[in-house]
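Document type: protein sequence-to-structure record

Subject area: structural biology

Format: plain text, a pair of labelled lines:
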Amino acid sequence: MSAAVADSSTPSGDYVASFSQNDQVVQVASDSANPQNNRTQVAPVKPGSSPFDCLKRAWFSVRWKLSRCIFSRPVPFLTAKLDLKLGDVLITLPVSAVVLAINANLCAREQVKESGSLPMIAMIVVFALTVRNNSILLTLTGLPFERALLYHKFAGVVAILLSGLHGLAYLLEDAGIAAVQRRLGGGVGAGTPLIERQTSGAILFYLLAALWVFSLSPIRRRFYEAFLRLHWVLFIAIVVFSIIHGAGGVVIGLIPWALDLVFRHGYLVQKNFRGGLSKPGVISQQQVSMSHLPGDFLRIQFPRVHADTGSSFKYEAGQYVFICVPKLSLLEWHPFTISSSPHEVLVTIHIKALGDWTKKLLAAVRSLRTEPTRSWQRHSPFSGGIGITPMQAIANQLFFDFHHRGRQALKKVHFVWSVRERNMVEAMMNSDFAENRKLLQGHTPAYLPDDLLSVGPNGGSTSPSDVFKTEFYLTRGHPDPETPIDRQLQHCLRYNTRPDVADVMKSLGQDARSTARSELLCLSVDPPHWYET
């Protein structure tokens, strides 16, 4: 079995203020006999001063300010229910309304040919937004992959509505006097057989409607593999019938998608996995290990720095990677959050076997027994279940910044995790994994699980003055003194209850006011049952 790990996702470290990539981590002392004595410091690296670097930083700065002030600013109710931000209210929705109004007016005036232009433009936008993360389009615009996917869906709905108005304009005209002119060879469709344009237009609309129906969340989530394959079939059919219908301009939207596809599968995967002409890839097949953990969990890990070439796998806390296991499928890539933080020696990914692909991966790992045979030489993160992985990475990065980068302005990090099964806690807070990591040269202790499981004077402290505080809520469990994890986490493990989010936020707000701070950052991966009454 082999596994290829490719392309960490945006956002870029260029505009994540807390995790600047302009710092270089330097190992200043190494004691192989006692790795705990290793010390790490951070040396600043001067940013580039070329005109291109200056232009790049200026563009990232403008992009970040626009994102913070407009495009990523939440709006009450709309953000929570529809995932719409202030930028959507100010730009996306008004533009869509204007476009629909224009086509409705053209429809009322029976302007068939003119009413067909806007649906074609909308289809170009739909196709252009099918690009994956790390594409040139998303990198230049700063549009996160998740938002691009949202706009892809939104533009698709607008395209269907515009196409419906275009078809209605034809029906209105067909029932009028202009129908006689068209049957005599003039008007709309001149130069193209009338029956061909009528039929292709009707089929095209039905294909668009079918694609929308099969993309609805209940169908997509329950029958994802069928949805994915059907999406491809309908996509190809839509392009073909668009060209037949005379809307060949839709192929313009395929250009960024095709370039991204060639770049991703023809270059990026080969570069990351097998390497290029100048050096081997970042990830070595022989250095990737997969381990089965309690509770149908998998742990994938590999050295952040390639042992043979010194190439480094660069990522930011909270990011995810796409993973392909060729033994399961050559074409399937699935996203998983990196649970380690960028300063750690090993890149770690935890996977819960929930879907078909992850269950196949779990079965393959069990059958091969691919356990590693040697040791390798004011924030509030809320998370539920396997959602701990991005929050763990962010908390570990904050812990590293506080202790090794002198980020003393950090006043409080309150980590809350709600989980059903005890074996999930055992998988994520694995003491053997924590002990084995201490043997790695260059290892610096992480907050989770290293510091939390520590028996030293700082480990497990619950003093109100502590910067880092953790609470784990085991919603379906009771204390079990015979279980090691219960003894190790007795200071922070709560049983048969759920977190009171309002109470936690109130406590953090009081802490913020006591330090003359009015801002609080809350990160949440929250199951719906947190808010049930």
Observations:
- The chain has two domains: 4-46+277-531, 104-265.
- The CA atoms of residues 453 and 488 lie 6 Å apart.
- Residues 145-174 form the longest helix (30 residues).
- The two ends are 47 Å apart (CA to CA).
